[in-house]
């Protein structure tokens, strides 16, 4: 899911934000969700930001 506005949880880091929907909506187990999230972050060049909070990202990175 890609949002046009920044619908990120400010108290969560990038990885936690990526896991949120997978765990709650898709009911994936945590390990599977993490693997998918990391794979997708790598595809878009964001893997180094997994521990960053939304406030630490640029508008384009959000």
How are the SSEs ordered, and which strands pair?
Elements (H helix, E strand, L loop, with lengths): L13 H11 L5 H14 L19
Helix pairs in contact: 1-2
Structure in words:
The chain has about 60 residues and is mainly alpha-helical. It has a domain at about 10-45. About 40% of the residues lie in helices and about 0% in strands. It contains two helices and no strands. The longest helix is centred in the middle third of the chain and has 14 residues, at about 30-45. The protein is globular and about 30 Å long. The model has no long low-confidence stretch (mean pLDDT about 90).
| Percent helix range | 40-55%
Largest sheet: none
Mean of residue pLDDT values: 92
Topology as a string of helices (H) and strands (E) = HH
Sequence stretches where pLDDT stays below 50 over 5 or more residues: none
Shape type? globular
Give the count of helical stretches.
2
Number of strands: 0
The fraction of residues in strands falls at under 5%
Q: Report, as a whole number of angstroms, the end-to-end distance.
A: 13 Å
Q: Helix- and strand-based class? A: mainly alpha
Rounded to the nearest angstrom, the radius of gyration is 11 Å
Main location: membrane
Subcellular location: Cell membrane
Enzyme class: hydrolase
Keywords: ATP-binding, Cell membrane, Hydrolase, Membrane, Nucleotide-binding, Transport
């Amino acid at each position: 899911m890609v949002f046009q506005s920044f619908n990120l949880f400010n108290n969560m880091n990038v990885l936690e934000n990526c896991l949120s929907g997978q765990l709650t909506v898709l009911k994936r187990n945590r390990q599977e969700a993490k693997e998918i999230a990391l794979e997708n972050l790598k595809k878009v060049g964001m893997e180094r930001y997994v521990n960053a909070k939304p406030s630490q990202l640029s508008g384009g990175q959000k």
